[in-house]
């Protein structure tokens, strides 16, 4: 009988507890997940079939925050998060996209707030759990909240715009240079492009590469304006073609409402870009959104999807598409900067339904 019992102290008294009970309690320990955060970045690693999350912020007050430098991987098939343990890692959160030709997750650190400047290019190899500082000779300027997407046809990372923190003058004078850059991992070189026409500069715009159309799609966020805020929230849609180095204003008849801090990814099954949420900002007010939209480049149409269930209204979240499961993974964000969470949501395009992971 004693072999099947486990001795524990409870309120200073020796108690016999069935060993099976102890094992049961151990098995119910919560699985590890990334801590609540926003401003993180996320991408899908095709070779390893894992979603990779890096960095982010957790706001502790209106003027202070904790910066995360951890790296996580998510397996949608087993619904498990794994904290990776690279020997070194970037010192801050940066833009993230997966280079399929080189099997590397590429990060560009382009700036931080307030005016702590970074200009670093990193590459992450999931197979060796190693971050490498690439240290190219030339890099884009240190702009905050640029947009980054991987153009698989040209095998280039495409980066656009961001906030010039150093030369902006809060609270109502903001500078958003509208530069376009391309990064080639094989030669470890950044090249500034020279399109004849460019979108107005902005930061924290939604961006995704449309494989079928071979275009980088850019949507919304804030651009500089002569008003008390110094910016205006927009809902314009642009497409970039690396082969011709050209941006095109798409001007669809209907579009999601103006917003920033949204995210979107390309869905192979729909052959469309899917966008969720975002934040509408005006006069110090931030209104979270919780709608789901799809953009069809060939038809130049946005369609609201009206899923049966959705995550709560939020911005500052990130999404990644997992083709092996034909699902979109959403992690983190929140209704405000002080309300970031650690929820994982899965979108099924066939059922047009969002489901919180584990439920």
Notes on the protein architecture:
The chain is mainly β and 359 residues long. The chain has 2 domains: 1-30, no CATH class; 41-356, 6 Propeller (Neuraminidase). The protein has one helix at residues 19-27, and strands at 5-10, 13-18, 41-45, 50-59, 65-75, 80-83, 95-99, 104-109, 120-125, 130-133, 147-151, 156-160, 180-184, 189-192, 206-210, 215-224, 231-241, 246-249, 263-267, 272-282, 285-296, 301-304, 318-322, 327-331, 344-348, 353-356. The strands form 7 sheets. It has a 4-stranded antiparallel β-sheet with strand order 3-4-5-6, with no helix packed on it. Strand 9 (120-125) and strand 10 form a beta hairpin. It is globular. The two termini are 39 Å apart. 44% of the residues are buried. The model is unreliable at 1-28 (pLDDT under 50).
Question: What would you say about this model in short?
Answer:
The protein has one helix spanning 19-27, and strands at residues 5-10, 13-18, 41-45, 50-59, 65-75, 80-83, 95-99, 104-109, 120-125, 130-133, 147-151, 156-160, 180-184, 189-192, 206-210, 215-224, 231-241, 246-249, 263-267, 272-282, 285-296, 301-304, 318-322, 327-331, 344-348, 353-356. With 359 residues, it is mainly β.
